[in-house]
Every structure is written in structure tokens, then in C-alpha cells.
Design a protein that fits this description.
The structure is a homodimer of 510-residue chains.
Chain A: H1 2-22, H2 25-32, E1 41-43, H3 45-49, E2 59-62, E3 65-68, H4 79-83, H5 91-96, H6 104-111, E4 114-118, H7 120-133, E5 149-152, E6 157-159, H8 162-165, E7 178-179, E8 194-198, E9 204-206, H9 208-213, E10 216-224, H10 230-234, E11 249-258, H11 259-265, E12 277-285, E13 291-297, H12 298-302, E14 309-314, E15 317-318, E16 328-330, E17 343-349, H13 356-359, E18 388-393, E19 399-400, E20 405-413, E21 420-426, E22 434-435, E23 438-440, E24 453-460, E25 468-477, E26 502-508
Parallel strand pairs in A: 1-4, 8-17, 19-26
Antiparallel strand pairs in A: 2-3, 3-4, 5-6, 6-7, 8-9, 10-11, 11-14, 12-13, 12-17, 14-15, 14-16, 18-20, 20-24, 21-22, 21-25, 23-24, 25-26
Helix pairs in contact in A: 2-6
């Protein structure tokens, strides 16, 4: 299969080259995929439906096409999701995971697995069925602030522009980055109940009012997507994932009940050695009604000093829909993906969540691991995030002169409750360093310093540089961990953990 | 003063150059320092004794010489220690801090501050007094295993040779590195009492037998000197500190009472917001009877999950004298310097320890901070240590051939209870990486994984290399923090936190 992928990449590059000339190759691939091909074998919907597992071979349909995708499954990042379409049409799933739509590489890939046509009668009735089901699952998503930079509309993913990100220590809710994996659920608060259950505890079903009766805790905590700053890593070498520029991070005040209090209310016994993980399920679901899910280790969940909140307020207001109304988990210091929104269910377990996002995404690998060799079971799910920083001002490409003193500002953050102790800056590739003189932080102490640092410093543009120069930022946290220097040596195929030095390019005009 | 230092460095280089020719310049400096210089003003011991503080100017004597060292004090790494000699002879202090002895740079520095001679009568009586006091403070130090690589005899500092360091997961006590700051005290167990006192708690005085009545906890924990691997950082650019090659680390099983239990027994109230730090004092003292000391934050000290032990056993045996008999603190995940040996006193406080080693040593700075600009008050004392790794086999300079598969092994560790999740290896400067396939670890989980990882992996020496090649190791911990790539960008004047990639040089013989 490796060879298949390589040759696909080759033909893709060739197609792209042709598209530049013809202007239409991509569009043609999209339009012709799934069209009848006379002479291929004809199948019925019933024939296809029998091929619903790897043991029986996995067949799917797309428009008039029938495909045997069994050999593709191990290579698909969302293999468990893909299996839900086994024996039926992929079209509802592509509507949900809209990254597939209008992506010619995906259409071309599918067509490589073509084995036949759906018979004319079944193709027509299936098209009718899909059309009648096809209310856009994203049609009830909330409106967003127009300043948010949109990376994907469905599911909605948008980030705060770097130019305004550090203008306030607390990120305004409407400008806070949004990372959704599925449509935003429309929760009826009268019906809402949070289920708490699992190994060795008694089941609780808590309304929002009941949750609010538990002691209310407030923390300042930064939430960051594990893929933040991916664009900088991608500039080294291509990879899969949303184009986060550095704004998939924000700092807010969160209020809610402590998860440790809820676990205690359910009779959790910290000496129960079987319990290793706490699972969270969102009320956001895919076409097979499967929810978004994640888990965190019991050590973090049950420690009152871990400050894991079942938050119902953000910046002093009830959560809004994009940020998890009515309740989300805030797991401070931990990757955004574990901070499950629209929380419907908490369960304690001896094993990790088996969700796609826990098992087959949000993990780190070394730079030589590619899609042919990756084994997601061999790498731990990202929890605590490593130290990072980003330069928010000046803007990339800003004009500077040799000898000029330049004000530089940005943010820095480290996971695991580690406070930033220093931000070093250099304008000459590390020959000389200055230290950011202002670090705006809240008063929490290591290892419960969950909020970010907004920093300001100065560098002098070296004399004698021409055309372009770079300013670098390097943060150091309270464990004296420091950012790695280059993306090349931390590159990974999913573009997560993208925490190398921020190297801002500027235009020199002497 | 900066200029003074620069010109001193110049004249030092010149002297060294001359010494190469003459073979005796260094020895001459040592022999002539403190000799009478006819024509200089004569002072009495009483004259000198009046100059005992910066307000009165600080004078000291060495043999027949009188020196006004007031302007030197801000530049001395141990300024608080230096002031103890104010108004008297430096000779007893140099016997204790033996790094001074026979170091021509130090003798030459002192002579630059010469203001006069001690009068003949006083010089003679003082010499007699010093000679009668001069029982070697290190004469009662214990014997050490001959395999230990000695970096300093007095105080004793020695490390485990890298060639044997990872032969066992638990480092044998006799081969465990020793980092002493002062002579080893000879504790009479019948007299021993551990004092526990301070802000808001009741005073306890615990015999070893009483300490043993508290619940006994065992942990596997690595202890590492904050200056471990300094030799690799020094190879980038010179700095001050002992020449640790990578063996100032070891992994042992420690047993003792939890500090949190002792604090609770003394009535510690975790809601007492005044209490911020817990101080430790050793029974090892300097000529002014001042003990070794350090402190840790209350968050670490009082948290039972922090696993801070008052350890009386190492690897199943009572502590030996070099490792702190009868009781030392084990602060797992934290720099060795806070793991105070020969523990005499614990006190809770609103402020950090004012000891030299807490305030003016064991702190990090950026590479542009030098001895003229350093301000130790501006940097936090090192507590949790960052992620590190070292290659222990093959040995540096081992002979290899292009195309050869090479077995590589070593250790990796991260502070703060973070487990090692991956060790990446490359033999071609990062173009391709392999992952160490064996990670030997204990079963503790993040964030209480205090022990190290002994790893084994393979790389292939690239074809076409000539003369020398390098193998690099890069560890990743459970917060996905990763080692920085080069020492140049983390260099600091004290050579601590030396955790860049290990880059092992090998000889190519094709």
C-alpha cells in the first residue's frame, strides 16, 4: 500500500500541475467521482449492505459508485468512524466531516477503490433518501464574531487573530478560539442531565441546578488546541490538520463545580486501584449518534489540587453555545481536546476512552513516522501540554531598519500548572539574547498556575542585515523546560505539539 | 569593574601563554601571593578587624598581605560566604572551599586588591594561630568506592562512570554520585534530633526512633545534580562549576516518613496562607558554623502526592554517611541541591531559605547573562528539573563503520514526576530518527513517576561519513516536553540545566 500512496502522491502532483494549466482538473475529478461507468459490474443496496466489516470486506457507495475500501481502512486517520459507513453510503458522513467535501485528493483516492456501479433503480432511490435526510447538520450552529479567522466552517473551527490576541489578559468570550469536531448541539436546559457513573461508584444524574449546589470554584485557565501553531510546523514539511496560525489559544476565568467533589459525591474511593481514567462524553454526535469523547487519568481527575472543573461559567457569564453550554470540562494545563464541551456523561473506568480522538488522534510521534508506519496504539494520548510561546506583534513581514530598537510582544504558556519564568528574545539568530521585561500573569503558583503569560520585550535589529531578518521567542517554564529550537526535529504527521521557537520574519528596509 | 575583569582575563591568558614557555608562572603566582611587599603601608590585626562590612569597607588578610576586597564582593558567586571572612583571614575559608586552593587565577585576583602588609608581629602570631587550627576539616570524610570519578576531593564530589551507570536500574549505593558542599558530619545517633518548627506550627524534636514510628513509605526516585552534564555545556563556552560528565545522577529506592505526615503532626494548617516555603538545614557546617541549607515550596512539601520523604533508608539499608546518615530529604523530581543531607532542621516560613545555595546559586539565566550583569534575585531557584537524556554506550570516540548497525543505550529522566514516553535517536543529524525500542521504567504513573528510564535502541551509521560522526539522543516526557537541541541557546554562566540533546562523537573507520 505504501507504493500505492506514493504513486497517488505523484499523480496528485501531476494533476495539480495540469490544473494550473487547464484550470479545471480538480473540478473535473470532483464532478466525475461516483458517476456510472458502463461495463462495470452492477450491485444492489442489499449486496453492498452485506459488506459491513473487515471480515466481510468493507464496501461503501458514493452516488452511483460502489467501492471496496477494506485495504484503505488502516490508513484512514478516523478508521473507527469510517467503519460506521460500512455497507452503506459515505455521503452523510462526508456532510458531517466536511473536510472531505470538494477535496479532489479524497475523491480521487475513493475512485481508486471502485469495483462497480449501484444498479440504476437503487441508485435513484438512495439519492432520493439522501436528499430528503440532507438537512444540513450545521444549520443550527450559532453565529460567530466576524473577527474570528475561520479555518473550517463545518465543523466550525476558528481562531483569534494574532494581532488582537494579547490585547487583553482575559480573552473576551466572543473572540476566544472555537474548535468543534461536530455540529453544536442545541441543549434544552429543562431536559439537561449530567450522568455520572462507572466502576465502583454510584450513578448520579445531575441537573444544572443540582450541579450548582456544589461548591463553586473559579480559576483562570488557558485552553489551547493541541494543534495550535501547526501552520509553522507545516511550513517545514506538509502534514494533516487544520491551519492554526497561533491563535488556537485563549485565557479565561472559568467557574463551576470541582470534578473531585462530584466524584466524591458519587462515592469514589481513591484506594480503588482498578480506577485509572475518567471519561467524558459530549452531547455533540455524528450521523451514527456516536458522541465526541475523551478521557483523563484519575490522578488529574480526583486531585482537588488538579482543579478540574465542570464549568458552567466563562468570564462571569453562562457558557455560550460554542464553548459548551450548559456545562463543559475544564482540565487546566491539558490539551483542549480533553476539555469536553456540552458535557453529557462522566464515567470512571479501568481503561482510557476508546473514542477516535483519544485513540487515533492527538498523539505525538517522531519525525520519521509517516502514515505508512504510524501505530497510534504505541503513543500516549496527549494530556499536559509542553511550554510554548508566540510573537503577536509586530505582524509578520513588518518593515524594520538595521539598528532599530523594536518592541515585541506575545504570549507564552506551559501545561501541567507550570508558570512561565522567563521569555528570551533574539534578533540575531541566538548570538545575543534579551529577556522580556514585562510578564503579565495571574498570582497562582506552580504547579497550579493554569493561566498564560502576556509578555513584552525589546530587541535591536542588527546592522548590516538585508531584505529579511527574524526575531525569535523562547519561553522557559517553572520546571525550567524550554522550547525546542526547530520544527524539523519535532515534526509529526498530525502537526500537534508544535512548540518550537517562534521565528517571526520581518522585512528590512535600510 | 567589567573592564577590570576583561583585562584580568587578558593578562591571565598572557600568563598562561608564558607558563607554557616558562613552565612555572602559575606556581610563582601561588607562591608569591601574600608575601611581604616592602614599601606598602603596615596594618595591625586590629586595624583589619574594623573593616568587617561593606559600609566600613571589607578588608581581609592572606599570609602577610592586607586586601580591600569591597569592590570584588558583588562579583563573587558566594558573596554571603565571603563576608564571613570580613575583617580577618581568608585562609580557613579557603581550606573549606578548597576550589580556591592552588588556583592561580584566584591568587592573582586577590593580589589585585592588595593595599598593604600585616605588620610583622601580627603576621607571625596569626600564622601560628592558623597552623594550630588547621586540622583538615575533611579528615573524617568516609572512604569512597574507587570506581567513582572524582571531580573535587574537598568538598568531595564524584560521579558514576557513564560506562557502568545504566548497568543496573537501581544504582548501587556505593556507586551513586556524591555531591557534597562541605565536610561530611559525623553524627552521633544517640544525640541526634530533628527539629521541626516555624510559622504557625508547634515545635517538634524527633529522634530517629520517633521518626520511624510514622508510616514508612518507599519510592523509587532519581536524584540528579542541577549541574549534571555540565561538561557538555562547557564545551560550547567556558563557565563556572564542577566538571560533571553525565554521571551526577542515580536511581535508588528510598524509604522514610512523608514530610506531609511530619508537618501534619506539627499542626500545619493548609489554609494558613502565610506559609509558602519549607526550609531544610543540614548538619554540615562551614568555619563560621553556618549550615548547608535549601527550601522547597509548600505546595510540594505538604502534598502527600508530592512524596517528599524524610528518608532514613537507601536501597534497603540505612543511609550511609556520604548520602546523609541518619536522615536526608528526598524531594522527588526536584534538583539534588534541595534534597538536603544530614538533616538537622525543618522550618516552615513565609519566605525562601536565605542560604547561599538557594539565593545565589542553582538558578538559570539566558546565554547573554554574564558575571558582570547577573542578578541572582531576578531568577527563581531551580526546583523541578527539565527533561534530559544521555548516551552511556558506546563510549565517546568508539570506532564504527559506515552502514554498521549500532546498539545504543543510556538513561533519560524528567523532573516533576513526568515519565519518559519516548527516546528518539539519530545518526545523521536529524534526517532520520529511530525510537529506542526498550524503555526500562518502574510502574509509577505521571505525575508521580520519580524514577529514571534506562533505554536501549539502534541506529545505522550512515554510509559516506568520514573521520567522525555523531549519534544524538532526544527524550520526550509525559508532558510532551522535549530536550532543546543545542547547548549554545541554553548556555548559562553556572552551567546548570544542561539538558540539550546528547551528541556522542564516534570515530569512523571505513
Amino acid at each position: 500500500m505504501a507504493a500505492g500512496f506514493a504513486s497517488l502522491a505523484d499523480s496528485r502532483r501531476q494533476l495539480q500541475a495540469e490544473a494550473v494549466n487547464s484550470g479545471g482538473a480538480d473540478q473535473k475529478i470532483i464532478e466525475t467521482t461516483g458517476a456510472r461507468i458502463e461495463g462495470l459490474k452492477e450491485y444492489s443496496i442489499e449486496d453492498v449492505s452485506k459488506h459491513d466489516s473487515p471480515e466481510n470486506r468493507v464496501w461503501v457507495t458514493y452516488k452511483n459508485g460502489v467501492y471496496d475500501i477494506t485495504d484503505f481502512i488502516p490508513m484512514h486517520p478516523g478508521a473507527t468512524k469510517l467503519l460506521m459507513a460500512a455497507g452503506s453510503s459515505v455521503e452523510p458522513f462526508w456532510a458531517m466531516y466536511a473536510v472531505h467535501l470538494n477535496n479532489p485528493a479524497i475523491y480521487e483516492m475513493l475512485e481508486r477503490f471502485r469495483i462497480g456501479n449501484l444498479n440504476l433503480a437503487d441508485a435513484a432511490s438512495q439519492a432520493e433518501q439522501i436528499a430528503s435526510d440532507a438537512s444540513d447538520p450545521y444549520s443550527t450552529d450559532p453565529a460567530r464574531h466576524k473577527a474570528i479567522v475561520v479555518n473550517s466552517k463545518t465543523p466550525f473551527n476558528g481562531e483569534t487573530p494574532l494581532s488582537i490576541l494579547t490585547d487583553s489578559f482575559i480573552t473576551p468570550t466572543d473572540l476566544f478560539y472555537v474548535r468543534n469536531h461536530l455540529p453544536v448541539p442545541d441543549v434544552d436546559i429543562k431536559e439537561y442531565e449530567l450522568e455520572v457513573s462507572g466502576l465502583g461508584i454510584k450513578e448520579l444524574n445531575l441537573s444544572l441546578a443540582e450541579l450548582k449546589k456544589l461548591p463553586k470554584h473559579k480559576i483562570v485557565a488557558t485552553v489551547q488546541c493541541a494543534g495550535n501553531r501547526r501552520a509553522e510546523m507545516r511550513a517545514t514539511k506538509n502534514l494533516k490538520g487544520l491551519e492554526w496560525r497561533g491563535g488556537a489559544i485563549g485565557n479565561a476565568e472559568w467557574a463551576g463545580a470541582k470534578l473531585s467533589d462530584v466524584l466524591n459525591a458519587a462515592g469514589f474511593d481513591e484506594n480503588d486501584e482498578r480506577i485509572r481514567h475518567v471519561h467524558f462524553e459530549g452531547l455533540d454526535t455524528d450521523p451514527s449518534n456516536s458522541p465526541y469523547g475523551a478521557s483523563i487519568p484519575i490522578e488529574k481527575a480526583s486531585d482537588p489540587r488538579g482543579d478540574v472543573l465542570l464549568a458552567y461559567e466563562m468570564n462571569g457569564e453562562p457558557l455560550n453555545r460554542d464553548h459548551g453550554y450548559p456545562v463543559r470540562v475544564i482540565v487546566p494545563g491539558v490539551a483542549g481536546a480533553r476539555n469536553v464541551k456540552w458535557l453529557g456523561k462522566i464515567s470512571v473506568s479501568d481503561v482510557e476512552s476508546d473514542s477516535h480522538w483519544q485513540q487515533n488522534d492527538y498523539k505525538g510521534f517522531n519525525p520519521s513516522t509517516d502514515w505508512d508506519t504510524v501505530d497510534f496504539s504505541k503513543s500516549p494520548a496527549i494530556q499536559d501540554m509542553p511550554v510554548t510561546s508566540s510573537i503577536c506583534s509586530p505582524a509578520p513581514g513588518a518593515k524594520v531598519k538595521g539598528g532599530q530598537e523594536l518592541a515585541v510582544s506575545g504570549y507564552a504558556w506551559s501545561g501541567g500548572g507550570r508558570k512561565i519564568v522567563r521569555v528570551d528574545l533574539t534578533a540575531d539568530g541566538g548570538k545575543t539574547w534579551t529577556q522580556a521585561e514585562s510578564l503579565e500573569q495571574d498570582t497562582a503558583r506552580h504547579p497550579r498556575h493554569w493561566g498564560w503569560t502576556v509578555w513584552k520585550g525589546k530587541v535591536v535589529v542588527p546592522e548590516g542585515v538585508e531584505e529579511t531578518t527574524e526575531v525569535w521567542s523562547k519561553a522557559v517554564d517553572s520546571s525550567y523546560n524550554v522550547q525546542p529550537e526547530t520544527f524539523a526535529n519535532i515534526w509529526n504527521l498530525r502537526g500537534v505539539l508544535s512548540n518550537a521557537y517562534c521565528k517571526l520574519k520581518l522585512s528590512v528596509q535600510n
